[in-house]
Amino acid sequence: MIEIYNTESRRKEVFAPIDAKRVRMYVCGPTVYALAHIGNARPVIVFDALFRLLRHHYGRDHVFYARNVTDVEDKINARAKERGITIRELTEETLRIYREDMLALGNLAPSFEPRVTETIPEIIAMIAALIANGHAYEAEGHVLFSVPSMPSYGSFSGRSTDELLAGARVDVAPYKRSPMDFVLWKPSDAATPGWDSPWGRGRPGWHIECSAMAEKLLGDTFDIHGGGRDLMFPHHENEIAQSVCAHGGAKLSNYWMHNGMLQMGGEKMAKSVGNVVAVRDLLAEWPGEVIRLQMLMTHYRHPLDWTEEGSRTARTILDRWYRAAGHAAPANDMPAAFIAALDDDLNTPEAFAVMHELAAEALKGSTAAASSLKAAGNLLGLLEKTPEEWASWRPAKMALSEADIIARIDARNAARKARNFAEADRLRKELLDAGIVLEDGPAGTTWKPA
RNA sequence: GGCCACGUGGCGGAGUGGUUACGCAACGGUCUGCAAAACCGUGUACCCCGGUUCAAUUCCGGGCGUGGCCUCCA
Length: 450
Hints:
By secondary structure, this protein is α/β, with parallel strands linked by helices. The chain is elongated and about 90 Å long. It starts with a strand and ends with a strand. The strands form 5 sheets. The chain has a 4-stranded parallel beta sheet, sandwiched between helices. Helices cover 44% and strands 15% of the residues. It binds one RNA strand through α1, α5, α7, β12 and α10.
């Protein structure tokens, strides 16, 4: 039995899918105009872990996970112009890198990766439906959602419409009936991507794409909707408004989950703050699995300050787990305590405590524990390599070439054989200064990045 | 300013109305030419002030601090 903290009710609730044969989850995906930063990766990793847990419980053919790709957006247009490439070139390149990066972090591909450019007819149909039932109106080539037409607007993110009116800090477009109204469709000039619509050539506003893609793939009401906390308002509030009003009041999602913000030096990591670290850059310095474990070592709802020390800790843990798991085949049965931890609102830190216990038993010789450890890790997308593959990971930049290192190791071993330990230690030190740690084992000397 | 989270040992990080979380780091020991790994052992904690209670880190109130949102944001 899974319990999920539902942001909407602000309580932990027992998870009961609408249809256990078709469990459905939607997560807000990337706008493809720039490299994904590590903060962008948090929801991907967190909800991938949930996806895997759901598949464990309901069967892999019974869980459907949609994560959209927003490939129509004004920032994309601006960036493409800046770089002197076409919008298509920019979105294709960015999406390709995004997929590579997310794969390197151990994420499964979602069941569906809908793109806005492939969902335009559904978006137009949804907007038309909103106009038809009085929740939207056309004004000067724009179509706007009429916030006052939905009395419950604001209840999801916990704000009153009075407060929103008072706090309105943007210039209110003259064609808006209410300052809170938001854009569903906006006109495009000849240089901007656009599609023909009943309201002229234009493009969708920010929020409608998620409503339309979710409807298309998962139906009017589905089980879980996820995303970053910062999306609660306005994005999710508006998504709810659009979908609920287009669907005659049907609920959009039964459970809402929001991951906490990733921080860097105590501040939210965001492009607007300028403190972003690209996933791509981190992957040059650390195995993707290290980043994945580091991400999951903190409960998904809490803020997470991204530090190098955290990466080091995660790597040390994985070194130990890989040693402990060895070549064991994953057990068929999952450790109960491990699953129980994950079932409790995806309590990954507690699940890792169980893995630590298993690792200790495995290192004392329990092959059953090794198998359980492997199975548990695999469930979360960890420990999927062989120990050899794990040990052979190399950072993109090293002070010494592989050949230089080998030459020094050979020289050191010759010195050791001659019992010239002063020289052997000098070579060890020299390599350590270059960021290389040597380990003398029964099978010879191996090395790894410090 | 409004709304909402959070505040645990050197660091990371769960959890609980009364009993060791766990990990990393540190220290001592076994082992090792050295180092690493492994194993054994050691230490340090629940922001402040009230309240409820036999008992609060855990519940309630206030304060302080940090973070998020308030139409760019994962």
